[in-house]
Design brief:
2 domains, 3 helices, mainly alpha, single chain
Length: 75
């Protein structure tokens, strides 16, 4: 519906955005609510596992590649 045809909703929208106290802290409340969900905990766990895999790969791959090179040259 065009804004001019629905002036009541337009006025409400202007009222909501004109007074910052009406929505101050809403993003923080939304973040806090989402951060307490199981889905968020699962995502954080996946992130930690990914980080662990990257760290282990960074440490273990260079010596492992050296072993592969030595064993590969023996054939």
């Amino acid at each position: 519906m065009p804004l001019l045809a629905n002036l009541d909703d337009l006025r409400k929208a202007f009222e909501l955005t004109s007074d910052s106290q009406k929505y101050a802290g809403s993003m923080l409340r939304e973040y806090e609510a989402r951060s307490k969900t199981t889905a968020n905990a699962a995502q954080l766990f996946r992130n930690r596992i990914t980080h662990l895999g990257i760290a282990l790969g960074t440490i273990l791959l260079p010596p492992l590649n050296t072993v592969f090179d030595v064993v590969g040259d023996g054939q």
